[in-house]
Amino acid sequence: MNKVFRENAPTYAIVEKFFGKTKAVYTIQPENIKTVLSTNFTHFHRPRTMPNALDPVMGQGVFTSNGEAWAHSRGLVRAQFSSKRVRNVAKLEGHVQNMWEAMGEALQDGWTEEQEILLIYNRFTLDAATEFMFGTSAESHEVAMREKTKDRSAESIVRSWVRKLIVPEDFGTAFDTALDYVALRLKLGRLWFMADGVEFRLACYKVRSYCDNYIRRAVAHAEAAKETAHTATFDPGFVEDRRFGLISELVHSYPDKVALRNQVMQLLVAGRDTTAASLCWTMILLDAHPEVFTRLRVAIEKDFGTEAHPLAPVTFENLKSCTYLQWVIFEVLRLYPTGPLNARKATIDTVLPVGGGADGKNPIAIRAGSTVVFNTYLMHRWEELWGPDSWEFKPERWEDRKTGWEYIPFFGGPQTCLGQQHALTEMAYVITRFLQRYDNITSSTRQTNRENGIRTILVPKRTVLFRFHKRTS
Ligand code: HEM
């Protein structure tokens, strides 16, 4: 257990010096977390600082609202997370191919050049998420490659102009800048307003214009479809998008365009960095544990074959039935849950089931207005719940293991992550395609790869660099 919890208790209160009032209760006990997120869900709200910090980027929506506004948003968004959409993994392959291109061919010794892997995954997940949302990808890998090579050919210039007509600015860069500020605002807590300025506002403006562009098309298309019933004659490009883009469905539920844009932004933010960071942690752990890397490589070879000699298609069903791959993902999310530290504010006087009394086994009182902070990171590593090897990376622990509230990388209860299946599938797909293509991994930054940093989520503190060895057969 971590020093602070060891010196206090698995649940402990921070009390005001003069009035003796409880300010906050810290806990890693599953029964308390279950009470906050599920059993007594209505007694708690997300703290106000979170929506304030995020407001210029994404306003109000499912991720930042409380009460009825949240329930309304969640209902609308949930309807779009159909299993058909989640199962459509074939759409990821184009983004994988762009990723290979961005990473470059292997050198003569069979190894790729050094890759800044979090950046690569961030671009991959942004491209996949924008396609999921708008039916058209932000193509951030392509933009980055163009910047790198400064391709000035006539074709490239024409393409870049066509792009500018569709996409107002380089969305990826603006999105990253906006989120860097958001991370700082979240860190500043009540002083969130100190992190502001022209750069931030400009990035927010660019990101909003990007979304607005697609929303305009979706609205125009929906209106034209109502009038003519002959959709195929109106904006044929969009008819193609419409088949996949979530926005073309959401447009019917949101007459207010700003509310729709906020919702779309919230989904992009919720889904982009989380999945990319989890993939990055996966590679870090595989690099640090060659025995797991080898076992996973063999399992993937057996089920799917290699890139040059595929045995079976990489489908949703095949990914789910590759047991060792699933264990690896569960274990990565246990050690590195993207939301390591979370809080809820009590809206009424209430209780948590354990943590009170001399032995901590009695209920503990929570006053209205005080905060319950739950530490998922430490709960996922608590020896009492996971055994003496709880800090070790051991996918094998998942054999026959059933979990409850001691394992909540996606939380649980009414606010459980809506993109859980989406994220698990995307992770499984990317890991599989990596190990079909590469048979070894090495890192010049190994010494520091496992240092934790917090952006809006848990990410490696320092740059993570990898080289991958291309299979010869
Ligand atoms: C490995 C990847 C992911 C992890 C670990 C993760 C984790 C989480 C967690 C812990 C929450 C609860 C946050 C809170 O209430 O404070 C959450 C909420 C949410 N997630 Fe995810 N997420 C992931 C990927 C995604 C993806 C890909 C999407 C969408 C495409 C998504 C959509 C959402 C939404 C909409 C919510 C808000 C649910 C609500 O408040 O009702 N997530 N996620």
Automatic annotation (TrEMBL):
Gene Ontology MF: a single term: oxidoreductase activity, acting on paired donors, with incorporation or reduction of molecular oxygen
Keyword ATP-binding carried by entry: no
Protein name: Cytochrome P450
Cofactor (UniProt): heme
InterPro entries: Cyt_P450 (IPR001128), Cyt_P450_E_CYP52_fungi (IPR047146), Cyt_P450_E_grp-I (IPR002401), Cyt_P450_sf (IPR036396)
Keywords: Heme, Iron, Metal-binding, Monooxygenase, Oxidoreductase
Domain of life: Eukaryota
Keyword Metal-binding: yes
